[in-house]
């Protein structure tokens, strides 16, 4: 999947996300999560870690929950909402 994020063109696949998140510990999240490899992560953590090598200079603050939810759901991940 190809998309723009903070003025950068990024490309990412579901398989790359799964590979990147293998062995990663989830950080604390607030509302929106995604299940990757059977582990629940905040959507922004998953997208940031999956993109940080290819989109240099990207900060976790560059990724909103809405952007992360949209991209992750388009890749076929289920979004989990907790209140």
Report on the structure:
The chain is an alpha+beta fold. It is 33% helix and 24% strand. The chain is built from three helices and five strands; from the N terminus they run E-E-H-E-E-H-H-E. The protein has helices spanning 14-21, 43-51, 65-74, and strands at 2-5, 8-11, 32-36, 39-42, 79-81. The strands form two sheets. A three-stranded antiparallel β-sheet has the order 4-3-5. Strand 1 and strand 2 form a beta hairpin. The chain is globular and about 30 Å long.
Order of strands, widest sheet: 4-3-5
Please outline the major beta sheet.
Answer: 3 strands, antiparallel
Determine the structural class based on helices, strands and strand pairing.
Answer: alpha+beta
The proportion of residues in beta strands is 15-25%
- Low-confidence sequence ranges: none
What is the β-strand count?
A: 5
* Overall average pLDDT: 92
Shape estimate:
globular
Radius of gyration: 12 Å
Query: What is the overall number of helices?
Result: 3
Give helix % range.
Answer: 25-40%
SSE arrangement, N to C: EEHEEHHE
């Amino acid at each position: 999947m190809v998309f723009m994020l903070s003025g950068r063109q990024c490309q990412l696949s579901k398989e790359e996300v799964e590979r990147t998140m293998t062995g990663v510990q989830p950080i604390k999240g607030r509302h929106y999560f995604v299940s990757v490899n059977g582990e629940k992560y905040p959507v922004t953590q998953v997208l940031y870690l999956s993109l940080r090598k290819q989109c240099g200079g990207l900060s976790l603050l560059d990724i909103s929950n809405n952007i992360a939810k949209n991209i992750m759901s388009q890749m076929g991940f289920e979004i989990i909402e907790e209140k």
